[in-house]
Design a protein that fits this description.
alpha+beta; 4 helices
Length: 176
Amino acid sequence: MATQAPPASGAPRDDAPQNDAPHNDVPRGALIAAGILVAFSIALAGATRLQGGHTIAPPAAETVESRALIFQDRTDRGIAVLDAASGEVIADLAPGTHGFVRGMLRGLSRDRYVHGVGAEIPFTLTRWSDGRYSLSDPATGSVLHLAAYGFANVHEFATFLPGPAGSTAQMKEARP
């Protein structure tokens, strides 16, 4: 039997695994430039935030109408909306309806849970002189500007205010 001599140093062996992975053809300089750009963007955003940089706030407006609201879960999975001052039930949200209101309340309730606050402090629904609506939580300091969520969703909350707040003419003003 003849034996084969081992291959010369540096020559590929027949039984060596082949690397078929694609090669990266992006120039090294472009990768370094992209990394520097990302790092600069993050640093600039962080510095602006730390210095109390520019935040977008709605223009100042006067309160036209405001109501303190308590939302109570019912045993049938509905929600009772109460006027906090009088205790009067102003709306009954049947189970499976008013998805936007339910979603907003879930988020606000989670925020209260994180802050160790219960449901005893009412939320404040406000209609402003420029037609905007906001829902604020005095317990956590959260303020939701409802126009950001669309006309139909603003209307769901606007109906909780007394008087003509939920009228179509008033609501057209609230469109962003």
